[in-house]
Amino acid sequence: MRGTVILTDPIFDAHTWHGHVEQAARLEAIRAAIDASGLRAELHQLGPRPVDEAALLAVHTPHLLRIIRQLASYGGGQIDSDTYVTADSWEAAVRAAGCAVGAVEAVISGRAPNAFALVRPPGHHATPNRAMGFCLINNVAVAARYALDHAGYQRVAIVDYDVHHGNGTQDIFYSEPRVLFCSTHAAPFYPGTGSVAEMGDVTRAPGATLNIPLPFGAGNAGYALVFEQVIAPALRRFQPQLILVSAGYDAHWSDPLGPMLLSVSGYAQLTQTLIALAEELCHGRIVMVLEGGYNLEALGACVVASLRLLLGHAPGPDPIGEVDAPEPLPEINRLIATLQARHPLLATSHR
Length: 351
What we know:
Arginase, Chain A; 8-stranded parallel β-sheet
């Protein structure tokens, strides 16, 4: 097996709540887009890797797991105004984490050059002790912990380009010097975390967190600039052995939740940058894990463009197009200058 691996499971469709924006139709749209693209024959599809409770407890408290499991056993309900559980949600959440772990295992074992875990529910808002923001179990965090604890890796990078800050992933690894968490996100926006000043535990993991809170409407050019001048230099300084991507596509201009004006082509440029950095720094080892994205057409198109790039192809035409809007580059340049002056992974390169 040498082609790109995708991992998913039918149980994910059973985790759905009528009227909720995070619903089964999201993966249905992705499957339809993959089929229409003609890529299906080039992809190797796998199911989830079994994960035991110890893997979940490596990032979450027993209390959180008990809440999700009990609520599912009662037939479901709402954890908060955003986050729901159905009778099938516990199994779906565990298998979503299993897909993320399976993607990492396939790549680090050499069985696949790269992988994409197409999972629901998403995970990056789930903190050690709280499910929130549509998220129950933090899939990318479980996968990163697997790489550290079972593969012997010493440096894993997580890049989160969802429109929302991955507060759960940050909380889980804030004191872990072996994990670099980088996040581009709209600010001010849900969940209100992710300031420049949050750089990792000052004693145990200074510089292990890199937040890039972007102004609304940052657009393709703004994102490309911060990836070139902030994300890429930080990754080169950190020298990861594996790059994980929290792949949220809700920064697309058509998304009902996101105000950032990225296009499919803009997202493809970010993904290509990360693939190139993986080739440069860690023998191409890159794993993408689905997070947000709520315009179904844009979500399917962005995933297909990402898969084309993982397969070594051009991303293809943008079927939706771009919007003509001013991009706040002066404000973004000031943000970049602040990070270059203050963040340990960036400031040291300018001394």
